């Protein structure tokens, strides 16, 4: 039998996703409204926790908003929305002050020449030191602090026993909450006045990612099913330096390692970045990732080297205790040996198109964090602007929710599900096939022939999966796969539409920027563009 709806409950603000964006939104919205936070246990292993480097903000007296805006625009390669960039940058110091008030243990700078009480590091694309951090585990420090406050808040209810698989809509085409599965596989409908997606990006549609449990675009596709517009899906960022260890789990080597002087070498001993870009290892991520990929192709090696041994053991242990300890636990002493690194899928610059308050094109549906596309990142996200975006847009979204009108009652659109089942191993094989296609054809370098092949292979896979799940009962694994497959296919469509190379989208068959004299346009797609 198909799973019956175990319960239907009423909620005011429903937040789906419990990383930095979701927790920040919950804490601010709870000042005026009651919040239900659907936060599965694996949210603790999502992208927020693995954000090592820090948060970019104008904090030093030697820095200013215009400089941060300018650096972000350069990194975004002409596709940033300058209004969104300036809004984010100007709200940054206030967001950091709020985190400090909650007790986030940022690393202090006690040197007599310090112009700011906390240590500021520098990362790729930034013209100065403006990254505030908690040693080299900033995401973990921020996440744990926010989680502790949320768990103790009287107006926040945390549901860690549910996974959202579909959004609810009513007869007026408004979002009305989410359909979830509990730990027993029973359906629950959480009907809400306002729903906020904070579900992360889509790096999980690739074979190698920088976090152990990457999102695969589930939130993006749940929104698209209700008619939300998706934007800039082709701009998938690959972090240049993920630890190369085929036998172990993924582990990010922070941008701050290069910010403090780390150098990249090919396996034949050549330092290759200075000849490619005057910023060398501190060039924006798209440039560094492509350079590493090219060196790997040239040498036939599965990695390059990132060397910090010249910094000395004291500096390495002081700045990078987490990275040092982790690598040591995997048999690598980075004070004496270079680190083998490889680019890996890291951050989705595209997502659900939103305004500065997080509103999507679907009434009563909001999106914040990596699942959203605000216009801040353009064609390439600059280092440490991600947690900044999470904080700033969560706070602005909460301010909007404080004055939002309640949803008038309307009939909900019914769900449809079967009673059969699909073998878990078969689901995993489908997912591996999808990831293989995306990594082979839609990664750091894309070509027309490869994109065409990816479209054909994904179309065939979608038809196969659709046929198998037509009468299947819902499951979290099946729902995630179905969302991921369609998101992957839309990503290929977006990449084929962009007849130029820009930022993270590099196609040797059309290597130049389109020069029309006009502002470059974002790519915009809806679910109906996926005609199969």
UniProtKB/TrEMBL annotation:
Function statement: Catalyzes the oxidation of L-aspartate to iminoaspartate.
Origin superkingdom: Bacteria
Protein name: L-aspartate oxidase
Species name: Billgrantia aerodenitrificans
Essential cofactor(s): FAD
InterPro entries registered for this protein in UniProt: FAD-dep_OxRdtase_2_FAD-bd (IPR003953), FAD/NAD-bd_sf (IPR036188), Fum_R/Succ_DH_flav-like_C_sf (IPR037099), Fum_Rdtase/Succ_DH_flav-like_C (IPR015939), NadB (IPR005288), Succ_DH/fumarate_Rdtase_cat_sf (IPR027477)
EC number(s) stated in the UniProt entry for this protein: 1.4.3.16
Keywords of the record: FAD, Flavoprotein, Oxidoreductase, Pyridine nucleotide biosynthesis
Pathway it works in: Cofactor biosynthesis; NAD(+) biosynthesis; iminoaspartate from L-aspartate (oxidase route): step 1/1
Residue ranges constituting the Fumarate reductase/succinate dehydrogenase flavoprotein-like C-terminal domain according to the UniProt record: 431-512
């Amino acid at each position: 039998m198909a799973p019956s709806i175990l319960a239907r409950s009423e909620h005011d603000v429903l937040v789906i996703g419990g990383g930095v964006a979701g927790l920040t939104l919950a804490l601010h919205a709870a000042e005026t409204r009651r919040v239900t936070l659907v936060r599965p246990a694996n949210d603790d292993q999502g992208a927020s926790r693995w954000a090592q480097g820090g948060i970019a903000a104008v904090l030093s007296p030697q820095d200013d908003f215009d400089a941060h805006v300018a650096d972000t625009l350069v990194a975004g390669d002409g596709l940033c929305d300058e209004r969104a960039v300036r809004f984010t940058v100007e709200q940054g110091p206030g967001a950091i002050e709020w985190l400090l008030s909650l007790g986030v243990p940022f690393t202090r700078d006690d040197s007599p020449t310090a112009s700011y009480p906390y240590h500021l590091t520098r990362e790729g694309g930034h013209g100065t030191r403006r990254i505030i951090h908690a040693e080299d585990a900033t995401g973990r420090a921020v996440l744990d602090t926010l989680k502790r406050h949320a768990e103790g808040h009287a107006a926040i209810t945390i549901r860690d026993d549910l996974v959202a698989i579909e959004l609810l809509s009513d007869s007026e085409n408004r979002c009305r909450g989410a359909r979830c599965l509990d730990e027993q596989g029973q359906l629950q409908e959480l009907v809400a006045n306002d729903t906020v997606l904070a579900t992360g990006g889509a790096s999980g549609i690739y074979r190698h990612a920088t976090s152990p449990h990457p999102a695969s675009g589930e939130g993006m596709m749940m929104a698209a099913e209700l008619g939300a517009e998706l934007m800039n899906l082709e701009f998938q960022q690959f972090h240049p330096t993920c630890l190369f260890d085929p036998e172990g789990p993924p582990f990010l080597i922070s941008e701050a390692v290069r910010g403090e002087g780390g150098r990249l070498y090919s396996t034949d001993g050549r330092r290759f970045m200075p000849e490619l870009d005057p910023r060398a290892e501190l060039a924006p991520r798209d440039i560094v990732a492509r350079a590493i990929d090219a060196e790997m192709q040239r040498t036939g090696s599965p990695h390059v080297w990132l060397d910090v041994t010249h910094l000395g053991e004291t500096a390495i242990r002081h700045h990078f205790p987490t990275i040092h300890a982790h690598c040591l636990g995997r048999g690598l002493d980075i004070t004496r040996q270079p680190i083998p690194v490889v680019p890996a899928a890291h951050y989705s610059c595209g997502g659900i198109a939103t305004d500065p308050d997080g509103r999507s094109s679907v009434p009563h549906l909001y999106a914040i964090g990596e699942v959203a596309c605000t216009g801040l990142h353009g064609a390439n996200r600059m280092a440490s602007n991600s947690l900044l975006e999470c904080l700033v847009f969560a706070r602005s979204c909460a301010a909007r929710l404080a004055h939002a009108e309640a949803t008038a009652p309307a009939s909900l659109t019914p769900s449809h599900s079967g009673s059969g089942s699909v073998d878990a191993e078969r689901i995993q094989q489908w997912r591996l096939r999808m990831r293989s296609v995306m990594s082979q054809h839609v990664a750091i370098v894309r070509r027309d022939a490869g994109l065409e092949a990816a479209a054909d292979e994904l179309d065939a896979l979608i038809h196969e999966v659709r046929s198998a799940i037509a009468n299947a009962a819902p499951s979290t694994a099946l729902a995630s796969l179905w969302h991921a497959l369609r998101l992957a296919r839309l990503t290929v469509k977006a990449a084929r539409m962009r007849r130029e190379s820009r930022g993270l989208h590099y196609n040797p068959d059309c290597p130049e920027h389109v020069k029309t004299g006009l502002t470059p346009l974002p790519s915009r797609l809806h679910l109906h563009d996926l005609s199969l």
